[in-house]
């Protein structure tokens, strides 16, 4: 997938990314052309098991090691590696398990160009975007077991660690979650979630608490 601020030239589909960036931007500044590239790869077996990865990269400009007069800004990247098993308990057709590792670059949600755009990823100092936060390594586990036709139990684990002392200081967090969900109708469900968590803001003491949450969902 490719998303650009200007309509790309059709040669983008056959020319290597760096070469395309150089050809298209040789007489432009970085602010004239922005591009986001996303690559997905999935391996799926007959059993339904999946291995998948997604890699995103933003602010690709022509590399200085090839073109000395190239306009250059720091690239921002994100990576997800995942595994999914739809039948984790072999004697049950109503259980599944998912494991994911996500890396988010420190500057993913900040403007790094000399002249930041009017619409950036921050507002009044607050970070906008994924709740995982930039500048982190994240491990996410999710298991679901259907107890009966309408009742299911979902367990989740999230371990999010700040990678380096740069960019937004989002700190560390660890969350365990158990959600009991009941389908009232095919389109309506209610649930109750208990989530003990630990949050450690950068440079501050560890904080511990438990979240109790009632849920109601209706599909239109």
In short:
By secondary structure, the chain is mainly beta. The protein has one helix at 17-25; strands at residues 2-4, 35-44, 50-58, 76-85, 95-104, 122-123, 126-127, 136-146, 151-162, 172-185, 188-200, 207-218.
Overall geometry: globular
The count of β-strands is 12
The share of residues in helices is under 10%
Terminal Cα span: 30 Å
pLDDT below 50 for ≥5 consecutive residues: which ranges?
A: none
Quote the average pLDDT.
77
Helical stretch count? 1
Structural class designation? mainly beta
Report what the structure shows.
The chain has 220 residues and is mainly beta. It is built from 1 helix and 12 strands, in the order βαβββββββββββ. It has one helix spanning 17-25, and strands at 2-4, 35-44, 50-58, 76-85, 95-104, 122-123, 126-127, 136-146, 151-162, 172-185, 188-200, 207-218. The strands form 2 sheets. A 10-stranded antiparallel β-sheet has the order 1-2-3-4-5-8-9-10-11-12, with no helix packed on it. Strands 6-7 form a two-stranded antiparallel ribbon. A hairpin with a 6-residue loop joins strand 11 (188-200) and strand 12.
Descriptors:
ten-stranded antiparallel sheet, mainly beta, 1 helix, 49% strand
Write the layout of secondary structure elements.
Layout: E1 2-4, H1 17-25, E2 35-44, E3 50-58, E4 76-85, E5 95-104, E6 122-123, E7 126-127, E8 136-146, E9 151-162, E10 172-185, E11 188-200, E12 207-218
Antiparallel strand pairs: 1-2, 2-3, 3-4, 4-5, 5-8, 6-7, 8-9, 9-10, 10-11, 11-12
């Amino acid at each position: 997938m490719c998303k650009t601020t200007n309509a790309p030239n059709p040669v983008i589909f056959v020319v290597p990314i760096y070469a395309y960036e150089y050809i298209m931007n040789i007489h432009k500044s970085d602010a004239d052309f922005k591009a986001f590239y996303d690559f997905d790869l999935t391996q799926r077996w007959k059993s339904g098991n999946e291995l998948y990865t997604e890699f995103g990269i933003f602010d690709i400009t022509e590399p200085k090691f090839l073109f000395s007069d190239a306009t250059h800004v720091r690239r921002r990247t994100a990576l997800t590696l995942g595994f999914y098993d739809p039948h984790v308990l072999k004697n049950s057709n109503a259980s599944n398990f998912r494991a994911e590792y996500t890396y988010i670059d420190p500057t993913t949600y900040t403007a790094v160009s000399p002249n930041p755009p009017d619409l950036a990823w921050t507002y009044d100092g607050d970070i906008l975007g994924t709740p995982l936060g930039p500048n982190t390594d994240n491990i996410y586990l999710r298991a679901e077991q259907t107890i009966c036709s309408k009742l299911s139990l979902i367990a989740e684990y999230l371990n999010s660690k700040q990678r380096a002392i740069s960019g937004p200081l989002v700190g560390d967090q660890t969350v365990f979650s158990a959600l009991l969900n009941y389908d009232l109708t095919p389109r309506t469900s209610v649930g109750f979630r208990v989530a003990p968590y630990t949050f450690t803001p950068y440079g501050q003491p560890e904080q511990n608490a438990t979240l109790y949450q009632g849920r109601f969902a209706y599909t239109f």
